[in-house]
Amino acid sequence: MDLWPLAAVMLCPNCRSRELFLIDDVDGDQITLRSLEEHTMQITYTGP
Ligand SMILES: [Zn+2]
């Protein structure tokens, strides 16, 4: 996984449509993303 940009269009796990996600919070390697639809998803940053 490449370094994450500040925003990325990804498939939303909540409504299964493509949404623009912005980084909302970073806690260690846990990154919380929030979309414009106020949907959130958490990913684990595993490094490049
Ligand atoms: Zn969504």
Walk me through the topology.
Layout lengths: L6 E5 L6 E10 L2 E6 L4 E5 L4
Antiparallel strand pairs: 1-2, 2-3, 3-4
The structure holds zinc ion (ZN).
The site of zinc ion (ZN) has 7 residues, from loops.
Commentary on this structure:
By secondary structure, the chain is mainly beta. It is built from no helices and four strands. A four-stranded antiparallel β-sheet has the order 1-2-3-4, with no helix packed on it. The model has no long low-confidence stretch (mean pLDDT 88). Zinc ion binds at residues 12, 14-15, 19, 35, 37, 39.
Give the proportion of residues in helices.
under 10%
Tell me about the largest β-sheet: 4 strands, antiparallel
User: Using DSSP, what is the number of strands?
Assistant: 4
The gyration radius over C-alpha positions equals 10 Å
Q: What structural class is derived from the secondary structure elements? A: mainly beta
- Give the overall shape, derived from the CA principal axes: globular
Q: Give the N-terminus to C-terminus distance in angstroms.
A: 5 Å
Strand order of the largest sheet: 1-2-3-4
Q: Treating each run of at least 4 consecutive H or I residues as one helix, how many helices? A: 0
Low-confidence stretches: none
Bound molecules: zinc ion
- Beta-strand content: over 45%
Order of helices and strands: EEEE
Mean pLDDT: 88
